[in-house]
Design brief:
With about 325 residues, the protein is α/β, with parallel strands linked by helices. The chain contains eight helices and twelve strands. A six-stranded mixed beta sheet has the order 3-4-6-5-9-12, with helices on both faces. It is globular, with a radius of gyration of 18 Å.
Length: about 325
Amino acid sequence: MGTFGKKAPVVTAAGLTGLLLLTAGLGKGCGSGSAPSKSQNLPSLIFSFDPDRSFSLLEEQVRIGPRVPGSDASRRTQDLMAANLTEAGATVFRQPFSVRYRGQDYSMVNIIGLRRGRGPGLIMLCAHYDSRPVADQDPDPANRNRPIPGANDGASGVAVLLEIARVIKGASLQKSVAFLFFDGEDLGDTFDGGMFFGSKHFARNMTVNGQNLRGERGLLLDMVGDADFRSADEQYSRQYARAVVDSFLLAARRLGFQDRFYQPPPLWILDDHIPLNEAGIPTVNIIDFDYPYWHTLADTPDKCSPQTLRIVGQTVLLWLLSQ
């Protein structure tokens, strides 16, 4: 059956394990995507999301280089995220941890930005920032041991969340928000437990520097920059966090983006939301798995779109404001 990367679709009757299958030929429609109007009685804050700024953050991560755990590019990206979170008024925590995988030791760091609200409760907004060290799905065998650029698979989720952090600076939110940027999501493969290291570590250690960061519910953004974006109907999300899916889709409908999220066919996708759901935090995965450049050297910024980042960012913002 071969070796698969972290987000291989899973077909299973129930539970968090199952038969890994390749899925090809998932059709997409163009869908909606026109900007919502300020006359639609929507919170004005969502119109502050700047897609061009978000896209620039995506490009900057790719310019830094492949964000393989323990590399200089990884450390520079950690500093980039920390600087943007600090500028947005968040308290930044670094959560270092070590991993031994296939005989090699890796130093990894989760970056966390805490934006305090008026009252109790914490919402978690998550993404991974590392990029895969091997382009194992590249059509050219000569490229398959080279690290991927990770424009969509890694940089896109980070770019959206950093722009959301900027937008909500100074806003009066009822609940606190934790921006969680996981390391080591894309290091190895799922067969030998070589993925999702950052989210697994966080799920086991939610008190960081004395601060309890256990959230009530969460969103995970992964591969959310595809110019032809339509997120999968991800079934672990529906099984373990159905109420979160429903509330997110309500926000999407208000914006006219309902045909961009949780669209058929149904897929069971292993990702960073699994450890959080296993820890009892209902967390949904927003991911477009129908991406022909996945785990290839062609996962570059030109395959991504500011328009997509806006659609995702505004929907996440509207959902967040409803919590």
